[in-house]
C-alpha cells in the first residue's frame, strides 16, 4: 500500500492511498483458499471445490468485501501512523467511473482513493493556578423556607362543600366543553374537573369568570389562548367554554403542624422544613454552579487562541442554529422581533460556535492529561435517564443508542465536561461571595454548556 500526503493546509489534510492490484489479488487468494475448505457446493465434495470455480462464482463479491474493509480500516490506521487525530469522520473520495471500478473488482487495476480530514490542533496547556473566580452564594432566610412550606401545605388543605357563591381560594368542580368558532376542539373538554380559583392553573381569564358562580350554575367563559401557547392550532385563538359548576367547596382552616406534614407523606413539620430547605439549596446550588462555570470558561477563553477544524465549527453552528430557529418558530417570532437580523444572528452564533469548539477542545485536552474518565456506571445512568424521557418507547430508544456510537457519545460529552470542570475547580482560586437570590438567578446572555 502506498500512502502519500497531497494537501497540508492549516489543519486540512488529504492523503492519497494506492493499493496495488497485486495486493488485492493476494488478499483475494487468501479468502478463496479459506473458503475452499468451508464451501458446500452441489456436485463437489467438501473441501474439494476448485479455487477457480469459487473465484468465478464469488470472486467479485469477495473483492467488493476486501475493498470495503480497506476503506473502513485504512483511514484509522493511516491517521494513527501519522500521530494525528481527526476532528470528525474522515471523508473518502474514489472513482465514480463504473468501468474503472469494475477493473478494480476484477483485479486488473490498482485501487486508488483519497482520505480527507481535518486534524485536531495541538494544544499547549497553560497553567491554571492564576485563574480566580467568585462563587456567588445565597443565604437562605428562615422566612423563605417557611413561605415555601406554607405553599406546599396548601396541597394538604381540606375543603368542605358550601351553598354559597365561589370566591378566590374556593375549589369548584366543573364540567366544560371548549369551542372555537362553534366547533369543539380536541383536549378542550373534561368532566368532574377540580379547580381552585386563583391558582392560575387554567388559561388566563378562565378562573376569574367563575368567581361568584354557585353549584348547578352554567356559564359561558370566553378566553383567548396565549400567542405562545404550546398547541399551535390553538395559539392566539379565542375560545368559548360551556361550563357547568357542579360543586363549590371552601378551604378549611388548618394549623401548620406535624399532621399537615404527615398528609404530605413526611413524618414531621420539622422534617418538611428540612426537605424544603434542601430543595431551595439545590436550586440555588445549580445556579451557583453555572455562574462559577461561566467565569471559568471565560477565563479559559481569554487564554487560548488556535486554529479550529472548520467542519467541527460548522457542525456546532448547525446544532445551535437549528435550536434557535426551532424556538423562534415555536414562539411565532422572527429575528426582527428579537431586535436583530438573520445575518447578524448568524454572525453571533458562529462566534458562539467557535467559542464552544475551542473550549471543548481545551477541556478535552485537560481531561485527557488529568486522566479524567467516565465510568460504565455513569454512562448507564445517563442512558437510563435519557430513556425515561420517552415513556412507552424505552426499548426503541435503548436500541437506538446501542446501535449509534455517535448518539452515545453525545450523552458522554456533557458528563465528561462536568467532570473536567470539577477537576479544574480544585486547581484554581475560588472565593465565596454572598449575593441576593435575584443576582444569582439572573440569566447569562449565552448558555454555558459546551456540549450540544
From TrEMBL:
Subcellular location: Cytoplasm
Entry's EC annotation: 5.2.1.8
Main location: cytoplasm
Pfam families assigned: FKBP_C (PF00254), Trigger_C (PF05698), Trigger_N (PF05697)
GO cellular component: cytoplasm
Family statement drawn from the similarity comment of this UniProt entry: Belongs to the FKBP-type PPIase family. Tig subfamily.
HAMAP family: Trigger_factor_Tig
Record comment regarding domains: Consists of 3 domains; the N-terminus binds the ribosome, the middle domain has PPIase activity, while the C-terminus has intrinsic chaperone activity on its own.
UniProt-recorded name of the protein: Trigger factor
Amino acid at each position: 500500500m502506498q500512502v502519500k500526503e497531497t494537501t497540508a493546509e492549516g489543519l486540512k489534510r488529504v492523503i492519497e492511498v494506492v493499493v496495488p492490484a497485486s495486493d488485492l489479488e493476494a488478499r483475494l487468494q487468501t479468502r478463496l483458499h479459506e473458503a475452499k475448505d468451508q464451501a458446500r457446493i452441489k456436485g463437489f465434495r467438501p473441501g474439494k471445490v476448485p479455487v477457480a470455480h469459487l473465484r468465478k462464482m464469488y470472486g467479485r463479491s469477495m473483492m467488493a468485501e476486501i475493498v470495503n474493509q480497506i476503506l473502513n480500516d485504512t483511514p484509522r490506521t493511516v491517521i494513527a501512523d501519522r500521530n494525528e487525530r481527526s476532528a470528525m469522520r474522515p471523508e473518502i473520495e474514489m472513482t465514480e467511473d463504473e468501468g474503472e471500478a469494475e477493473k478494480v473488482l476484477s483485479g486488473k487495476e490498482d485501487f486508488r482513493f483519497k482520505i480527507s480530514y481535518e486534524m485536531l490542533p495541538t494544544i499547549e496547556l497553560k497553567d491554571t493556578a492564576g485563574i480566580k473566580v467568585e462563587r456567588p452564594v445565597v443565604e437562605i432566610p428562615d422566612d423563605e423556607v417557611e413561605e415555601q412550606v406554607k405553599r406546599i401545605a396548601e396541597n394538604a388543605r381540606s375543603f368542605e362543600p358550601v351553598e354559597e357563591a365561589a370566591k378566590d381560594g374556593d375549589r369548584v368542580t366543573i364540567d366544560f366543553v371548549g369551542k372555537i368558532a362553534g366547533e369543539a376542539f380536541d383536549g378542550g373538554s373534561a368532566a368532574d374537573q377540580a379547580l381552585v380559583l386563583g391558582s392560575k392553573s387554567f388559561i388566563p381569564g378562565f378562573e376569574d369568570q367563575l368567581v361568584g358562580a354557585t353549584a348547578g350554575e352554567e356559564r359561558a367563559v370566553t378566553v383567548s389562548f396565549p400567542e405562545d401557547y404550546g398547541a399551535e392550532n390553538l395559539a392566539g385563538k379565542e375560545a368559548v367554554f360551556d361550563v357547568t359548576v357542579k360543586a363549590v367547596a371552601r378551604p378549611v382552616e388548618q394549623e401548620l403542624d406535624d399532621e399537615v406534614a404527615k398528609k404530605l407523606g413526611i413524618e414531621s413539620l420539622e422534617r418538611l422544613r428540612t426537605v424544603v430547605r434542601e430543595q431551595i439549596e439545590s436550586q440555588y446550588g445549580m445556579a451557583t454552579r453555572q455562574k462559577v462555570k461561566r467565569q471559568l470558561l471565560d477565563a479559559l477563553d481569554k487564554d487560548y487562541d488556535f486554529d479550529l477544524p472548520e467542519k467541527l465549527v460548522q457542525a456546532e453552528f448547525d446544532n445551535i442554529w437549528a435550536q434557535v430557529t426551532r424556538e423562534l418558530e415555536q414562539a411565532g417570532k422572527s429575528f426582527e422581533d428579537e431586535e436583530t437580523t438573520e445575518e447578524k444572528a448568524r454572525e453571533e452564533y458562529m462566534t458562539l460556535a467557535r467559542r464552544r469548539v475551542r473550549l471543548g477542545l481545551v477541556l478535552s485536552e485537560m481531561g485527557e492529561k488529568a486522566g479524567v474518565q467516565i465510568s460504565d456506571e455513569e454512562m448507564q445512568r445517563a442512558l437510563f435517564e435519557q430513556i425515561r424521557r420517552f415513556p412507552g418507547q424505552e426499548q426503541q430508544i435503548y436500541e437506538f443508542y446501542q446501535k449509534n456510537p455517535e448518539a452515545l457519545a453525545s450523552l458522554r460529552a456533557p458528563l465528561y465536561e462536568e467532570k473536567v470542570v470539577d477537576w479544574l475547580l480544585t486547581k484554581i482560586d475560588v472565593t465565596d461571595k454572598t449575593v441576593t437570590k435575584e443576582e444569582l438567578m439572573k440569566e447569562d446572555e449565552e448558555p454555558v454548556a459546551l456540549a450540544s
